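ARCHIVE CARD
CATEGORY: sequence design from structure
SOURCE FIELD: tokenized fold
FIELD CONTENT:
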């Protein structure tokens, strides 16, 4: 039986946390822009996705041993981890869900999941208690209403089910952000919520927190253009409100390069990603 349906319900969370979440929403990108950006990036994504694979593999290693009847790859992208989950859980049915149609079109011929679904993590088109495992690597940072993501996870997980996610928090790409600040003070780098907000939202959800921590991943590049080219190929270039419009002039690019040189290390120019890893569990039925 297909897990997809449209009759959705939502769990309540604390009012104070909702207000804090609302304040964050205005600073995060519109999900339609996110979907369009990642759809365009589908053909080039895997060629530059070393960080994404490292983070997803780390998240996979943190999941408990289990054999769910059905798993969900939330924000499945090109389907790399859908195929990994299919290999790890050969007897389970898989659902690959992404908001970007272009990503699903790219992933579908490669297999891995039985279902490829276009959907929104904040409003999942899935039945209640229909999956035993939710896996989400570097996707939920684009969701402005993370409390709804958690509420939806609680709704669709079976009792005893697991929601493992990796996301990004404040401090990500701080070298690029600070270098741009020195140039013109405008928003050139995607914003992310604070780690403490992940802690509060997870604690306020109906899910039990098995583990929740932040770990930096640092990549190195020979020059600034290599970093910005990779961000564009991933679909993760600047799509936040307040970003400057139009083309970036040569003088500003040169100023950016000069400012970023102050961060140079022996390995090259560093780009730091502050990665949040979480494993949450839906309490078993009493």
């Amino acid at each position: 039986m297909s897990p997809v349906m449209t009759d959705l319900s939502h769990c309540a969370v604390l009012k104070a946390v909702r207000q804090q979440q609302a304040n964050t929403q205005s600073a995060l990108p519109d999900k339609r822009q996110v979907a369009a950006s990642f759809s365009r990036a589908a053909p080039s994504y895997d060629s530059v996705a070393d960080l994404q694979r490292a983070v997803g593999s780390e998240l996979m290693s943190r999941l408990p041993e289990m054999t769910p009847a059905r798993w969900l790859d939330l924000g499945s992208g090109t389907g790399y981890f859908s195929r990994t989950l299919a290999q790890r859980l050969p007897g389970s049915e898989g659902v690959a869900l992404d908001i970007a149609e272009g990503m699903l079109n790219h992933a579908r011929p490669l297999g891995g999941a039985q279902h490829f679904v276009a959907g929104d993590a904040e409003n999942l088109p899935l039945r209640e208690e229909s999956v035993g495992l939710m896996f989400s690597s570097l996707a939920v940072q684009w969701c402005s209403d993370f409390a709804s993501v958690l509420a939806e996870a609680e709704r669709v997980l079976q009792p005893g089910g697991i929601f493992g996610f990796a996301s990004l928090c404040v401090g990500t790409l701080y070298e690029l952000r600070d270098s741009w600040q020195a140039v013109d003070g405008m928003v050139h780098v995607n914003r992310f919520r604070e780690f403490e907000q992940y802690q509060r939202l997870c604690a306020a959800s109906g899910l039990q927190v098995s583990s929740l921590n932040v770990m930096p991943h640092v990549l190195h590049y020979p020059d600034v253009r290599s970093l910005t080219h990779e961000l564009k190929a991933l679909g993760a270039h600047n799509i936040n409100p307040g970003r400057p419009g139009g083309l970036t002039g040569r003088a500003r690019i040169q100023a950016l390069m000069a400012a970023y040189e102050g961060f140079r290390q022996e390995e090259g120019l560093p780009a730091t990603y502050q990665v949040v890893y979480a494993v949450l569990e839906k309490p078993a039925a009493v």
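CARD ANNOTATION: The chain has ten helices and seven strands. The first strand starts at residue 70 and ends at 74.
SHELF: design records, drawer C
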